[in-house]
């Protein structure tokens, strides 16, 4: 088993692993080995400056005369992955580093837009559920006050035949009409019997669904819903990515619940979740970026990578600057990276990866939040009476996600499309955020998508025809979901090592393309672990062992552990952490400022 690590392992690790239990050695020895090898690599004194210290690179040495700026580690992208890498390098205070982003703010796909009317929208439903203490430490350091966060209990349903079936659907078939209950139980019994004699693994996601949930649940919910989410048929997806993500029904409990007419309890890893009180999900990443030194961050034109020259180990930027690097951590989509490198072999390989586009649609509504909506968080829609697969009641996450009640806004139109009053009136307001997927296998009528979505909200009784729409939002994110296709692993196992041989670490949601480790916490840790690997050869657990990471709380690495061997001032034995500079205003999608009220002003 240890052999599978050898590709990414330094000598120390492979020796240790040969003689001891792998998992124990990874968990128990990681912090000590990190300390020891960092100390050995960098000596006792260390002050970080650009190009202060060269780290060894596999094939080339940076020629400092070839570039305007030279660093040991260059990070492309200030989404969670890039920020994880930067945070770790900043903490280690060893190799010199610099971080770039083509956008004017940090956050990437975990950003938040604000409409001109003052409604906030994330890139679809983003909630924090963390598998890592280090991740928690970093976001808590960035947003340290109690009132920076709200904690919510997940209240989630599936819309089916006009009913709200509690999530997860497959555990709550007791809520379905009788004929559907019979279909589902029938399929569950068949699948349980077949599972007893099956001696092969399911060959794809579709077979996995059939084996786990049976024909009835597959036809009613799993197949149509997953096609709506992924924009590819379930027969084209593999099933290794699933791990903890899909609830497997227990036939005895399901049958008992049907007979007793009971609802199954809260399931899964995100049964409770927290959400930032202000500035949406994007506020977290702006605050994390604010904990890093200003002179090591470049945004906009000054941070836009136009070319990567792997031979010369330089990166060209849109403002004409060239940056020489020892190691490159790239978090842009790996197919885009291949294009920037101009290497035909890599471009062709990366074309074997599949992705879907995510459309995010927001609807701001005047009025008290209706009873039918209540405190619902997010809702799933498997049927074809609406284009969206998920709706989030974004106004339920924070009272700062929409304008305050006293704000006066005109009505754009009523939900049924008829003209409303153009006179600006006060709120209160509430909002819905919708997600629609698109791919070459699932085209979308983009031009009419907003209109069709609002009609879908009426069809599913989320909106009444006479509801006053005061704000709308529609933005599409070309790379939204990295699809776990049957071909994915074959491509990644060739592509990522080829890049790494050139000292390029492609990591992140689309950098390393593994959906199962593509959430914010995973992405952040992909960056942290890439930095650790570069500095001292530590194993990248998240990249290489998703199941291991996803089935435990990863608490070994902590932010308060000091890996800084320079004599920095300490408070109560731990290193002084940088203070947070909160953005006092927010730039909106169209460039206007959005002022924020303090928590005391909002009820
Ligand atoms: C619809 C949807 C729902 C999600 N829901 C959740 C959720 O509930 N919980 C959760 O934890 N996560 C969720 N995620 C995942 C989360 O958004 C990702 O984990 C995270 O944003 C990925 O971070 P990243 O840094 O790998 O990539 P990105 O966020 O994509 O960051 C890459 C960065 O690289 C920059 N870049 C690209 N090209 C260049 C260039 N040429 N030059 C310079 N910079 C460049 C981009 O501007 C960007 O900032 C969701 C994502 C989506 C799309």
TrEMBL record:
<dbReference type="Pfam" id="PF01593">
    <property type="entry name" value="Amino_oxidase"/>
</dbReference>
<feature type="region of interest" description="Disordered">
    <location>
        <begin position="569"/>
        <end position="603"/>
    </location>
</feature>
<dbReference type="GO" id="GO:0016491">
    <property type="term" value="F:oxidoreductase activity"/>
</dbReference>
<feature type="domain" description="Amine oxidase">
    <location>
        <begin position="81"/>
        <end position="346"/>
    </location>
</feature>
<protein>
    <recommendedName>
        <fullName>Amine oxidase domain-containing protein</fullName>
    </recommendedName>
</protein>
<feature type="compositionally biased region" description="Basic residues">
    <location>
        <begin position="594"/>
        <end position="603"/>
    </location>
</feature>
<dbReference type="InterPro" id="IPR002937">
    <property type="entry name" value="Amino_oxidase"/>
</dbReference>
<dbReference type="InterPro" id="IPR036188">
    <property type="entry name" value="FAD/NAD-bd_sf"/>
</dbReference>
């Amino acid at each position: 088993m240890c052999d599978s690590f050898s590709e990414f392992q330094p000598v120390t690790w492979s020796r240790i692993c040969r003689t001891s239990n792998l998992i124990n050695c990874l968990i128990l020895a990681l912090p000590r080995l990190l300390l020891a090898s960092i100390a050995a690599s960098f000596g006792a004194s260390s002050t970080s400056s650009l190009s202060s210290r060269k780290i060894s690179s596999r094939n080339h040495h940076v020629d400092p005369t070839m570039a305007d700026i030279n660093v040991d580690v260059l990070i492309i992208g200030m989404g969670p992955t890039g920020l994880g890498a930067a945070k770790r390098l900043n903490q280690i205070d060893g190799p010199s580093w610099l971080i770039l982003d083509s956008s004017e703010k940090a956050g990437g796909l975990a950003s938040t837009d604000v409409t001109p009317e003052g409604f906030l929208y994330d890139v679809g439903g983003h909630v924090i559920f963390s598998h890592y203490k280090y991740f928690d430490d970093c976001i808590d350091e960035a947003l340290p006050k109690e009132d920076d966060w709200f904690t919510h209990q997940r209240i989630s349903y599936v819309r089916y035949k006009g009913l709200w079936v509690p999530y997860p659907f497959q555990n709550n078939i007791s809520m379905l009409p009788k004929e559907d209950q019979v279909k589902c139980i029938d399929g569950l019994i068949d699948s349980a019997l077949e599972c007893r004699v099956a001696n092969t693994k399911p060959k794809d996601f579709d077979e996995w669904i059939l084996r786990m949930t049976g024909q009835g649940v597959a036809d009613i919910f799993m197949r149509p819903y997953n096609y709506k989410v992924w924009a590819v048929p379930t027969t084209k997806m593999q099933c290794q990515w699933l791990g903890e993500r899909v609830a497997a029904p227990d036939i005895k409990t399901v049958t008992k619940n049907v007979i007793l007419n009971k609802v199954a309890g809260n399931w899964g890893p995100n049964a409770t979740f927290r959400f930032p009180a202000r500035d949406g999900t994007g506020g977290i990443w702006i605050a994390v970026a604010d904990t890093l030194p200003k002179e090591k961050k470049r945004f906009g034109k000054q941070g836009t990578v136009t070319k990567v020259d792997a031979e010369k180990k330089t990166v060209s930027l849109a403002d004409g600057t060239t940056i020489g690097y020892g190691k490159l951590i790239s978090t842009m989509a790996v197919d885009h990276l291949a294009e920037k490198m101009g290497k035909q072999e890599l471009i062709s390989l990366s074309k074997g990866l599949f992705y879907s586009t995510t459309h995010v649609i927001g609807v701001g509504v005047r009025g008290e939040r209706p009873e039918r909506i209540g405190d619902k968080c997010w809702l799933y829609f498997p049927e074809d009476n609406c284009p969206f697969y998920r709706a989030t009641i974004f106004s339920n996450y924070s009272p700062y996600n929409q304008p305050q009640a006293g704000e006066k806004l005109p009505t754009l139109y009523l939900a049924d499309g008829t003209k409303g009053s153009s006179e600006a009136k006060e709120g209160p307001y509430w909002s819905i955020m919708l997600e629609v997927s698109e791919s070459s296998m699932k085209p979308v009528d983009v031009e009419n998508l907003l209109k069709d979505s609002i009609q879908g909200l009426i069809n599913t009784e989320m909106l009444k025809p006479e509801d006053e729409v005061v704000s709308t939002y529609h933005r599409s994110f070309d790379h939204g979901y990295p699809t776990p296709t049957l071909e994915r692993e074959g491509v990644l196992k060739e592509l990522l090592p080829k890049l790494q041989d050139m000292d390029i670490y492609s990591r992140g949601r689309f950098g390393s393309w593994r959906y199962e480790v593509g959430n914010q916490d995973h992405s952040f840790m992909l960056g942290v672990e890439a930095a650790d690997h570069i500095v001292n050869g530590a194993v990248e657990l998240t990249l290489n062992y998703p199941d291991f990471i996803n089935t435990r709380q990863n608490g070994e690495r902590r932010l308060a552990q000091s890996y800084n061997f320079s004599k920095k001032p300490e408070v109560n034995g731990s290193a002084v952490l940088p203070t947070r500079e909160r953005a006092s205003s927010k730039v909106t999608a169209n460039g206007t400022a959005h002022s924020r009220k303090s928590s005391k002003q909002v009820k």
